[in-house]
Amino acid sequence: MKILLFIFKFFPWKLRQFIKLIIYFFRENKYSNSNFPLIGKKTFFSIRSSFLDKPLKFENDNFIYYSKTYNDARQINTDLTDQDVHMTPVEIAPGEKTKEYKLNIEKKSVFKISRINLSPINIVIEKNNNKKKFDLISTNNRFISFSEESNTKIEIKSNEDFIISPPIMINQKIKNQKKMVLFLFIDGLVDRSVLGINNLDQIMPYTAKFFNDAFDFRNHHVNSDWTLPSFASIFSGRYLQSHNLYEPYKIKEIGKTFKILSQYFKKEEYATFSAGGNPRISPTHGYVKGFDRTIYHSFMHAPEVIGNFLEQNLVFNQRDQFHFLQFNDLHHNLSIVPDFSVMSALNSETVQSIFNSGIKNKNVKSVWNTKDNDRKMLYLEKVKRLDSYLNIIYQYLNDNYKPSDITVCLTADHGHSYLSDDLHPLSLARSKAIWLLKSGDKKGGDVYEFTEGVDIFNTVLSDSCIDFDDNIDGNLPIVCGGKIKRDFSFSQSLYLGQTYKAVINSDHGRYTYESETPVGNNGVINHNNPTIIINKNANAKNSFTEEQIKKIVISKINKV
Q1: Which of 70, 354, 362, 397 lies 20 to 30 Å from 347, alpha-carbon distance?
Q2: CATH assignment of 180-331+379-464, among 3.40.50.1370, 3.30.70.100, 3.40.720.10, 3.40.30.10
Q3: Is the pLDDT at 360 greater than 80, yes or no?
Q4: Could you state, in order of their start, the residue ranges of all structural domains in the chain?
Q5: Residue 529, CA distances (Å) to 148, 255, 496, 549 in order
Q6: Measured between alpha carbons, how far is 331 from 188 in angstroms, rounded to an integer?
Q7: DSSP E strands, 363-434
Q8: Has residue 32 got a pLDDT over 80?
């Protein structure tokens, strides 16, 4: 092999690039359909198109969404390779394809327009009986943004189709309860108790300071053991049997028959924005619904997420806003190797162990990783690094908003099996996640009532005084104004072809449930002869019986 590499160096440069391309082509592996913006499975003979050429359409939404390259200095058009996906940010916005557009602008607004053909776009602006005409000849397949003043008429024409998005007002028309509702999602951030840490400021000092008087839910458990079903429960308030997102290689729309969180804020006249790049929170699943703008970049790094947040706020700081920001920096090494500040905090032996573990477990899903103290050290350093970046957001909020005007929700979708000896996919290391809620100037503190991922949906909407469909699985915690306190939390693990597993956590114990036979097609579960394990707490007077546990599990998943 070394001889071949040596000889290869003497090939002409263009020939070397061609050979590399051929090798890359033959090494392609099947991958998830959610590799946005590409469409279809990645197989050897597949012909893949891109959502840069095709719109996103959903059953439960009035808009059609268009995707265009964003903030990329390369002169690429719409034909992306698989490698380009991880290099190309994409801007997604609702819009329409037309040859003519007219509007009387009541309030100053921002427009987004994209030229998708060769013809120039003719624009006529009329204000105070003065007309201005000009042709817009911009780079194809990018969104071009511009603003127009109040009481202006705009007419846009072209010989060929162009894309125009609905105008977004600069100033707020209807005042809402909160000026800024910020949803911070951190993939893989566990509750500090899983790490053996008492105080949050030991690993996240800036987050601890910002959420000092906030609600800190210490008995919070996710509803599923990985991102696809778990986050769908958070954003819909429903268990996976209702939202139906649990199969990794199928693209299904979240909220076919119900609204998701972002759609409620859109209805209440919030300016809505999303930035991130988690493939399990893909635009193809419907996570663009309800957003005026979405910036998606596969596994987007924290600095880029925060930069996009600040960019949006430079324009819409006079609007009531709902922002959804995704951070993937803990769950993955986004740049193949850990970041400089993270590696610099570890000695060479630890770094070597981490790399060897990564090679050894390359094909092992994270759900099945075994305990690894070196990876835990890496994880802690990643958490500290991310906290420093989050402080940019905290400082911005403190400098630009009154405490009473904001709601900030920080939460996660699952933990990590390598943090514990417990190999169960719903161990505390995987199911006990962080949930912090800063609700205006309300005083919170540690909250020990049991909560679940689905409860976040109710809580964020209720905190903003937004009415919602109550035919959901979520529950509003007592400390946030709810009427019913959960006696336990419910988490489940469902994979086709594997046994179904569920866990109930309560004050009197931890209860595991496992089906005798694997889950069948369409998620069908056979509840005959399940294995039930009761781990009763030593000081508990009472506990659930096996019959009660079975009834709880069946009632939870058969509510649909």
Answers
A1: 362
A2: 3.40.720.10
A3: no
A4: 31-171, 180-331+379-464, 499-557
A5: 67, 34, 19, 13
A6: 6
A7: 406-411
A8: no
CATH of 31-171, one of 2.60.120.1300, 3.30.750.24, 2.40.10.10, 2.40.50.140: 2.60.120.1300
Q: How far apart are CA 325 and CA 308, in angstroms?
A: 9
pLDDT confidence band for 3 (50 / 70 / 90): confident
**Distances from the Cα of 96 to the Cα of 62, 273, 295, 339, 488, angstroms:** 11, 19, 19, 41, 47
Give strand pairing partners of 183: 324, 409
At 154, give phi and psi (nearest 5°): -130, 135
pLDDT of residue 137: 82
Predicted confidence (pLDDT) per residue in 155-171, tens digit: 999 999 999 999 999 99
Tell me the pairing of strands 121-127 and 64-69.
unpaired
Report the candidate in 262, 223, 234, 231 with the shortest Cα–Cα distance to residue 60: 262
pTM above 0.90, yes or no: yes
Return the DSSP state at 202: G
* Bridge partners for 38 per DSSP: 50
**Alpha-carbon torsion 159, 164, 170, 172, what sign?**
positive
| φ and ψ of 142, to 5 deg | -125, 150
Report how far residue 305's alpha carbon sits from residue 283's, in angstroms, rounded to the nearest whole number: 16
Average per-residue pLDDT for the chain: 90
Q: Among candidates 264, 266, 323, which has minimal Cα distance to 295? A: 323
Query: What is the SS3 assignment for 343?
Result: helix
C-beta neighbour count of 245 within 10 angstroms: 27
3-state secondary structure of 353: helix
Q: Tell me, what's the pLDDT at 371? A: 85
- Per-residue pLDDT tens for 483-498? 999 999 999 999 999 9
Question: Going by C-beta distance under 8 Å and a sequence separation of 6 or more, which residues neighbour residue 222?
Answer: 230, 233, 412, 413, 414, 415, 430, 431, 433, 452, 453, 491
With 70 as the cut, is the pLDDT of residue 440 above it?
yes
Q: Which has the higher per-residue pLDDT, 85 or 315? A: 315
**C-alpha–C-alpha distance, residues 73 and 76, integer Å:** 9
Tokens standing for residue 247? 């199969």
Paired sense of beta strands 90-105 and 64-69, if any: antiparallel
Q: What share of the chain is helix, strand, coil (3-state, %, to 5)?
A: 30, 25, 45
Inter-residue contact 241 to 260 (CB < 8 Å): no
Q: Look at residues 258, 222, 228, 231 and name the one whose alpha carbon lies nearest to residue 242.
A: 258
Burial grade of 536 (CB within 10 A; 0-12, 13-18, 19 or more): middle
Contact 448, 454 (CB under 8 A): no
**Amino acid identity for residue 310 in this structure:** L
